[in-house]
Amino acid sequence: MSLLGQDIPPQAPHRVVVLALDGLLPFELGIPHRIFGRPKDAAGRPLYEVVTCSVRPPGPVETDADFAIMVEHGPETLATADTVIVPASYELGPVFEEGVLTEDLAAALAHVRPGTRLASICTGVYVLAAAGFLDGRPATTHWADADRLQRLFPQIEVDQEVLFIDDGDVLTSAGVAAGIDLCLHMVRRDHGTAVANDVARRTVVPPHRDGGQAQYIERPVPDPQQATTTAARVWALGRLHEPIQLRDMAEQEAMSVRTFTRRFREEVGISPGQWLAQQRVERARHLLESSDLSVDQIARDAGFGTAQSMRQHLQAALGVTPTAYRRTFRTFRTGDAGGLGSGATPVGRT
Question: Is position 122 annotated as part of the catalytic site?
Answer without folding.
Answer: yes
